[in-house]
Amino acid sequence: MSELVDEFKHTFRNHPSGVAIISANTDEGLAGLTASSVASVSVSPLALAFSVTKSGGSAGKVLSADTFVVNLLGEKQAAVAEAFAHSGAARFTDEQHWGTLPTGEPVLLDAPYALRARALEIIPIGDSRLVAAEVLDVRRGPETAPLLYHDRRFLTLRGDNAPRSQPINA
User: Fold this and answer.
1) Given a cut of 90, is residue 148 above it in pLDDT?
2) Distance separating alpha carbons of residues 153 and 16, to the nearest angstrom
3) Residue 96 DSSP symbol
4) Which of 32, 77, 95, 127 lies 20 to 30 A from 89 at CA?
5) With contact defined as beta carbons under 8 Å apart, do 38 and 147 qualify?
6) What is the pLDDT of residues 20-73, one digit of tens each?
7) Is residue 9 in some structural domain?
């Protein structure tokens, strides 16, 4: 079984994906996390899906919110993605260019796209949660190439390491 687990992990490490930060304004304050599992699901209703590991910490806070924002990142946002991937790093800073939607959710102002959504279903699978969410609004930001995640690194479409937009405070 361990060999199958290792092969599964290796397979998805080598399958490139886009990068998002899922952000929310919760009863406990602002919360967010980096995700590379966002996928389009349906246009009727408008729906997307993503998965998160564990239901505590940032994931638990985001999933407890009525609504959240799926910020799809651009190629110059690797440092922001890294900050939201590590607990204890600086989050929601002015340098990262966060703002607030009229409905109260935090939005990454420089993200090429931000999708405001609400969970339709949260399905527990092992220690992860699969979230199906209805898209309530789409906000377009500056046009830029996407940030990619491949083999534990953030990359650009050119294949080079994505430039950090600001230093990470770990």
Assistant:
1) yes
2) 10
3) G
4) 127
5) no
6) 999 999 999 999 999 999 999 999 999 999 999 876 789 999 999 999 999 999
7) no
What are all long-range contacts of 90-95, with beta carbons under 8 Å and residues at least 24 apart?
90/168, 90/169, 91/30, 91/32, 92/23, 92/30, 92/32, 95/166
Does the pLDDT at position 164 exceed 80? no
Q: Is residue 112 part of a domain?
A: yes
Tell me the sheet residues that pair with 110. none
Number of independent structural domains in the chain: 1
**Residue 30 backbone dihedrals phi, psi, to 5 degrees:** -75, 140
- Residue 76, domain CATH: 2.30.110.10
Q: Which two tokens stand for residue 18?
A: 């886009």
Helix (H) or strand (E) run with residue 87 in it: none
Which residues is 150 bridged to in the sheet? 153
Side chain identity, residue 41: V
Q: Is the pTM of this model over 0.85?
A: yes
Task: Give me the domain span that covers residue 120.
Answer: 19-154
In a domain, 5, yes or no: no
* 109 contact partners, CB below 8 Å, separation of at least 6: 97, 98, 99, 141
Flag whether 96 is in a domain: yes
